[in-house]
Amino acid sequence: MLRLTAQFTLTFLTLMLILSTTAKSYNLCSFDTEFVEAAKLTLKDLSVRKVPVEVRFLRADIEEIAGCHTLFISKYDIAKWNDLIIKGLIPNAMLVGEFNNFILSGGHINFFIVGGKVRFEISPNKLKRSGINMSSKVLRLGRIYKGPL
């Protein structure tokens, strides 16, 4: 599941319509060591629009989040996610998660499993509010979040 999630995340990055071309690397960050290890293997030597992808493990240091372009929150990091929300430290980045109510709590894209397959739910409105426009190709593949913003 984690390798699939990492691959899906790269697909999202590739199909984003806005990406800072001044960045030396595109930083995919997570507090989850297993996700980081899987993402490093899956995304090794890959780039997004000629910008190399760097996978970063976040410790408890909140300052590290500022350099993240995408933040992945695993189901094991809900307490850290809630702490970020309470402290008002949600980065201006693509926010990807894998637990119930992730989008409702402020996330952009949420992975879930149905019938043994990885699926995703996406909130184009929340992405747009963060300055991220997603390709219509991606939007057609996922379930559009229609709940409260």
List the strand order in the largest sheet: 2-3-1-4-5-6-7-8
Q: Class in CATH?
A: Alpha Beta
CATH topology call:
Rossmann fold
Order of helices and strands: HEHEEEHEEEHHE
**Can you count the beta strands?**
8
How would you describe this protein?
- The chain is of the alpha/beta class and 149 residues long.
- It has a single domain (2-144), classed as Rossmann fold (3-Layer(aba) Sandwich), CATH 3.40.50.
- Helices cover 30% and strands 24% of the residues.
- Strand 6 (109-114) and strand 7 form a beta hairpin.
- Helix 1 packs across helix 2.
- The longest helix has 14 residues, at 2-15.
Describe this structure in a few short sentences:
This protein is of the alpha/beta class. It has one domain (2-144): Response regulator (Rossmann fold, 3-Layer(aba) Sandwich). The chain is 30% helix and 24% strand.
